[in-house]
Design a protein that fits this description.
Number of strands: 0
Distance between the termini: 28 Å
Oligomer: single chain
Radius of gyration: 19 Å
Number of domains: 1
Number of helices: 3
Order of helices and strands: HHH
Low-confidence stretches: none
Shape: rod-shaped
Length: about 80
């Protein structure tokens, strides 16, 4: 069906897709837990827990970026020819 032209980019893409998927799948439910809290309950949390929520949001955005980069590498491996020196 598809011909893998650049196998190095293909495997990098697969690894990035797996890594990005793990980050996204494991962080999203934790962020939803914080987002679904009442404003009173969230305000009563200590500053360390609020900082964890902010870090989880940053980690999720990085995970999505890694996921998109993996898809890009995977797509490029199918369409871009390998340069011969």
């Amino acid at each position: 069906m598809f011909n893998i032209i650049n196998s190095t980019w293909f495997f990098i893409g697969i690894i990035l897709l797996i890594l990005g998927t793990f980050v996204t799948v494991f962080d999203y439910p934790q962020i939803q837990y914080f987002d679904n809290m009442d404003s009173q309950m969230y305000a009563s949390l200590d500053s360390e827990t609020k900082e964890i929520h902010k870090r989880l949001q940053i980690e999720l955005s990085i995970g999505i970026t890694i996921l998109l980069a993996g898809g890009m590498f995977l797509g490029l491996s199918l369409f871009r020819k390998k340069r011969r020196s």
